[in-house]
Amino acid sequence: MKNLTLTPLPDVPLIHTGDDLARIIINSCQHANLQLRDGDILVLAQKIVSKAEGRLVNLADVEPSPRARQLAEETLKDPRVVELILGESREIIRIRPGLIVVEHKQGFICANAGIDHSNVNSPLPRAGEGPGVRDEFALLLPEDSDRSAANLRQKLEEDSGAKIGILIIDSHGRAWRMGTVGMSIGISGFPALVDLRGEDDLFGRELKITQVGAADELAAAASLMMGQANEAQPIIHVRGFPYPPRESKLSELLRPKEEDLFR
């Protein structure tokens, strides 16, 4: 088993629409005197990917539908935010005041379609507005997180010459436990799921059902280093991932609906 090391990249600036994340990562690696090697993985917080891709929405520009207004009354949420949630979702799974659990259009179950207000920096006031007057913004998840990971990986591999992996993560709650945990939403260049069925355990018994959610395990570890408040460490460099690289997608981790005992 390799030694696994996780290192936050330094000097990552606040990200804005159109920023070149690959160039930012390359510069940050240089500041850390770190050269990418084959097998390295870079874990990115979803927020910086969404911001770079322009997924910031001004709530003043959102017109709620009748369905959004009705659901907003039931959940005590802003109807404009509910409209965004509906637009980002395949199906409403559960609701209660303050919460809408959905199947996101990328296939995973999450709260409020992953739409966030925390650590979302609003632009400066518009011309003609008084001092301190700002619009309210919400940040959506990337349109296709696997594609975002693959595009970023291609740019970094072309620059560095190293074969690497990219993981985009977000903080999700869990149905049966308190607290949020970092989870995978976009994967490229390393296995999301590691199938150990057919291998022997410590006592020589053949494993029958064991599959490891390796990408989610790494997401949780990286999320600890990123933090959830003002730590400003949204990119984590990983070296020593214990499983061999291969092409992979988030869909490997998503349990088919017909196998979901709780829906």
Automatic annotation (TrEMBL):
Ranges where the Coenzyme F420:L-glutamate ligase-like domain occurs: 12-240
Keyword annotations from UniProtKB, A to Z: GTP-binding, Ligase, Magnesium, Manganese, Metal-binding, Nucleotide-binding, Potassium
EC number of the protein: 6.3.2.31
Pfam families for this protein: F420_ligase
Superkingdom: Bacteria
GO molecular function: coenzyme F420-0:L-glutamate ligase activity; GTP binding; metal ion binding
The protein's name in its UniProt record: Coenzyme F420-0:L-glutamate ligase
